[in-house]
Specification:
By secondary structure, the chain is mostly helical. It is built from six helices and two strands; from the N terminus they run ββαααααα. Helix 4 crosses helix 5.
Amino acid sequence: MGSLVATDNFQHILRVLNTNVDGKQNIMYAMTSIKGLGRRFSNIVCKKAEVDLKKRAGELSAKELEELMVIVSNPRTFKIPDWFLNRQKDHKDGRFSQLTSSALDTKLREDLERLKKIRYKQAASEVWFALFYAFRRIQFAKQSGVFFVYAEHQ
């Protein structure tokens, strides 16, 4: 990754939108650790905020970080097109928005509950699919010994 010269105001871990962001990564890639933000969306947000894409996340000032979060929370006011957002034409209010972290989980849960209420077959299979693969991940971890390592240290 190269040498990293840490200045006095360098932060190794940033807390943004209830997510720990690695300060050593470039800002565009560091923002992708926030749930609901991908590489393309973080790229366009950095360009709208006029933040240097080569800058590390830990080097950002509080003003730059605040500007990024304002753009993430209100992307339509900064002329980011509707087709770029991850919540297009919400079922309840018909609005376009960009959801992040816990709001994304809440909307997904509401959508699945709505689909289960109208007895949409695919919704039931999506819930089953998520539960089945969560179980499979735990089962694989047990077989590979990950659970036993944690049990020994406690």
